[in-house]
């Protein structure tokens, strides 16, 4: 530990080598350790404030703002890397390495741990906290106002019109009451089948149940991702593919709700847009 502390102290001394252009931003230099933090940093900070993003920031399957991220440095999260860049703020989350975050705080870095919240109202509070930490509270207020207006339009449209729908990921994972997926589905006017069945939280479906009692409508995400580390046995099974091919489906880009944040409005609008393009609801015989 003593050796690590000495390395970190040396990293702090290297701060003087950070390009001068980074120091002229109105707020503190900042870095993000997670893809969710990337979206906040890119949306709220001055370009000159952004010292580093997460390694996944430019991944178009995971990062909504991947196009903007390509212009910035991306580093593997570590106290040494952040201190050598002279950052004053690091955006992290509950899954970030606790020792790294604690070390950063010992060296005076402000660590903002972005929580996994489930409601749009709670996301507003997170946005305000991050914006304040970056020195731009007015931008947080403006972003919250814009999201609120867009969300109101989605709710008024009520594209789902109460239709029951089931959310699925490639491994059979689903989501019920108490998740941000359920929040988005409800905002778009859908009745979440998992919630209607009395489930809560992040849940799942087995293949037999899906085939014998298929949903009227599917909401899917991550099926097109090239990431082969995802569990896919469910989504690639011939029985699922046959049933899904006859089930109306709306695919929501995974990058729009890879976690909860201001960008969930993108998921809500994508879902509403997909519902808008579906044929009118009908309930034909859906026997096996």
Automatic annotation (TrEMBL):
Keywords recorded for this protein, A-Z: Plasmid, Signal
Record protein name field: ABC transporter substrate-binding protein
InterPro entries found in the cross-reference section: ABC_Transporter_SBP (IPR050902)
Superkingdom of origin organism: Bacteria
SUPFAM superfamilies in alphabetical order: Helical backbone' metal receptor
Residues making up the signal peptide according to the UniProt record: 1-25
PANTHER family linked: MOLYBDATE-BINDING PROTEIN MOLA (PTHR30535:SF34), VITAMIN B12-BINDING PROTEIN (PTHR30535)
